[in-house]
Amino acid sequence: MSENYPFLAQARRRLEAETKAVERNARKLLRGPQNHADTNVPNEYARHIMLRDAQVVCINGPPGIERQTVVLELVVALGFYPVSVFTLVSDEIADGTSPYVAMLQTPVLGMKLPDRMYVEVLSKYLEKRIAQGERRFLVIDFPGNESQAAIFEEDASLIGAFVYLEGKRPEQTSEEAWEDSVAASRPVFEKLSGAGRAFKINVDQDPRELRANIADVVETLKSMSFVAKVLLAEDVFRPAPPPG
Fold it and tell me: pLDDT of 44-95, one tens digit each?
């Protein structure tokens, strides 16, 4: 079958090569550092091995937009473990021990927090769940902007797909907050859409149309061609190398 679909054969070869690389890294991890230069090797490889196989689908939208229906449908249909970044960051701030919180004069939700904090809190939680046997995650309210997406793909795992929710602005959400969120998410959607890994769902549709829209997204995410596309995906957030 793969002979009839060259991209599937290419994806298979890449997967086999990456699997062999991980096996080599695992053996190196088990041996431990061989010299002073290798002191940090075990931690780096252990983290790489834990996060590299995670399947991550992200879902986000402007503040106040209805998320519950789409999230529940995706969780049930895909079998992914739901992770709320808002809840993780809220807990991190409430704990009060984060070095990032110490940087803030008043650790109040809604303040501008460092993008790296969101990624590190999320990555730490994913590592914990992976160690407990989870491999597939639906990450809610992430990424909030291109910087978060770039840091996550560089330091943690590939964003396999990005589902962006759109609809009418709720009255309780200010126009400024709404526009800021839309502007921050636009480059994330555009870059992942250009790579064929982004989807839009309008939550204001008729319920029947909304379910059909969600079903279409689920069918695409489960398709072999999409799985192959993710296996072959490159980091779309990494700056292109200078010419010459």
Answer: 555 656 676 788 999 999 999 988 899 999 999 998 999 999 999 888 877 7
Read off the amino acid at residue 201.
I
Tokens of residue 181, six digits:
């969120």
182 phi and psi angles, rounded to 5 deg: -60, -45
| Cis bond before residue 63 (omega within 30° of 0) | no
Structural tokens at position 132: 């407990």
> What end-to-end distance do the CA atoms of the chain give, in Å?
40
For residues 62 and 176, what is the distance between their CA atoms, to the nearest angstrom? 11
CB of 178 closer than 8 Å to CB of 85: no
| Among candidate residues 78, 69, 72, the one with its CA nearest the CA of residue 207 | 69
CA distance 151 to 118: 10
Burial of 20 (0-12, 13-18, 19+ CB in 10 A): exposed
CB neighbours of 234 closer than 8 A, spacing ≥ 6?
Answer: 195
Instruction: Look up the pTM and report it.
Output: 0.76
CA distance 235 to 196: 13
Half-sphere exposure of 69 (CA within 13 A, CB side): 18
Contact 187, 146 (CB under 8 A): yes
